[in-house]
């Protein structure tokens, strides 16, 4: 059996546990490095621990294990569609460490996230991809995903966010 096929069989997808938080933070930093956004990346173990496993979890994570080591993750959260009047699942990040790519871990993570969306009764699963990330775009296309050309992500942060919030008071 080829090595890649053996690795695919050895992949285990499971819900993240509190002990996985340091691995998740490491992979979040590696994702930021890959996306050329490391200067914008400030993950903190304690906050992630609270947001995943606290009294009111804000997000959910799955991890991919290969040969007993955590090699990838998917982090999701619930959003809401007014058009569907239903909760939807948003995939914030899907990442596999570079040295473990090509072994099926990413595909198994995406499939597990899709299963979670179906289990939750979500009519859709959404995520963003950087326009220059051709390998990811190709991967998503191969799974049947559509890239929505007519939608753009908008963001308020930092001073602009604070200014809009202050304007509500005045």
Word description of this protein:
The protein is an alpha+beta fold. The chain has one domain (about 5-170): Aminopeptidase, CATH 3.40.630. The chain has helices at about 5-10, 20-35, 45-55, 105-120, 135-140, 160-170; strands at about 10-15, 60-65, 70-80, 85-95, 125. Strands 1-2-3-4-5 form a 5-stranded mixed sheet, sandwiched between helices. Strand 4 (about 85-95), helix 4 and strand 5 form a beta-alpha-beta unit. The longest helix has 15 residues, at about 105-120. The radius of gyration is 17 Å and the shape is globular.
Topology:
Layout: H1 3-10, E1 12-15, H2 21-34, H3 45-53, E2 60-66, E3 69-81, E4 86-96, H4 105-119, E5 125-127, H5 134-142, H6 158-169
Parallel strand pairs: 4-5
Antiparallel strand pairs: 1-2, 2-3, 3-4
